[in-house]
Design a protein that fits this description.
The chain is mostly helical. It has two domains: 31 residues, no CATH class; 39 residues, no CATH class. It contains three helices and no strands.
């Protein structure tokens, strides 16, 4: 008798995960959260050790504007 109960609940779980869960997930609107790293890369100005002269110049300009704001 206990084996029938175990088989019944096993089949019930299998049906639930095979049919019900995918149906619920496809109908649910999933909102994608913004990636923090991507926003960092998009707003990156460069570093002192950057190899590109354009990024070095951007970094120096950013430092100069930051320093001029702090002096005032």
């Amino acid at each position: 008798m206990i084996s029938y109960i175990i088989i019944f609940f096993s089949l019930l779980c299998a049906v639930f995960y095979v049919f019900v869960v995918p149906y619920k997930l496809t109908n649910k609107k999933i909102e994608i959260q913004p990636n923090i790293f991507e926003s960092f890369v998009e707003n990156d100005e460069g570093y002192i050790w950057s190899t590109s002269s354009e990024r070095k110049k951007s970094y120096k300009d950013k430092i100069e504007t930051h320093d001029s704001k702090n002096k005032n």
